[in-house]
Amino acid sequence: MPGSSPKSGGGRRDSPRLRIALVIEDVGLGGGQERVLAELAPRLARRHDVHLFCHTVRDIDLTGITVHRIRALPAPPGVRALWFTLSSSLTIHPSDYDIVLSQGGNTLVQSWVLAHTVHRDRHRLRAQMQRRFRLKPAWRHAWECVRDAIFAALERGAALRCRGRVIAVSLSVRDYFVREYGLMPQEIRIARNGVDHDVFSPELRAEARPRIRSELALADDDFVALFMGGLWFEKGLAETVEALAAGEEPWRLVVVGEGPRERFEAMASEHSVADRVTFVPHVHRPQDYFAMADCLVHPYPIEPFGLVVLEAAACGLPLLAARSGVALDLIEDGRSGFFIERRPAEIAARLDELFRDRAMLERMRGEVHRRSLRFSWDRQAEEIEEIFLQATSAEDASREAGGRS
Fold first, then answer.
1. Is the pTM above the cut of 0.85?
2. 6 near 378, Cβ under 8 Å?
């Protein structure tokens, strides 16, 4: 999906031009927060002076954007992230900018946070997965606990440093910052991520469904649940594989993404469902796989937003997801999908229900797509710009009042 470009700049014609520094390790049209900044930066640059502080940037229109490359440290991801926090803090001069927007604790000099991380929740979930599955050697798990504690401390520091200037990408991220760091709900604005409806669309179904199913040796009438992404243990793939054995109907599971495939193939064999699971490595056109499937399964209980969930919805794919992230906005039980816990019996029961009621499945397709239409990258950029303009206007007014007194 290279070459994505903004359709509108948003904002008011008479508003001031702001100097905005955006701080993130990598920027590109892949997934996660690097995708969010890849969409946001060009849109803000149409009306403002935008500076990117990053290791790498790719596949975006850099018109009007000044890129400040911070040399990456050739090290494991955790160490690389800590290095970026240190080096960005020494590189950026906050007084040069009206806004220094970080993605959490990846710098120590931010004036605003676009919050998309829930480090404390993720540490707790990782610990649960380690106890249950023994995923890593003890020494590596110990290091990751130290790393997680550092990340959580940086996240807390950013939240408190920018109190009143935190923008969350979802209701669940807002609630996390309230619960974990004592912020008040009214101190946190929400600007939800977007989706490109020209790329992710129900219209793909007619062409992509038969083509991808043929490639995967799936029949047209097979009921296919899709699991897409990485972090397989954290995001509930084990429970989804177990649901195959717990269900009463012969639905199938397609897993798209990178993970410990051999371990999950063994798990599927242990449950005698290996013939109903298909593993597909990372793909460059996820929209084709959304078009191929009948529903998305995403039982990730601490999802900060979930671009994959929104993209699936935009393609008209009914959702089975945990009560977190964008699923809170997209799912109404029985109308656009189902909320699920990461329990095999519950996942299986919902998939059995969809398998048996294809009319309900079809109604859900239309409803979930309709709900996805309120989300766009233009809308998020306009919301964030308006937040910045309102804040700077209030600060200017406050300074003027102080000067008169």
1. yes
2. yes
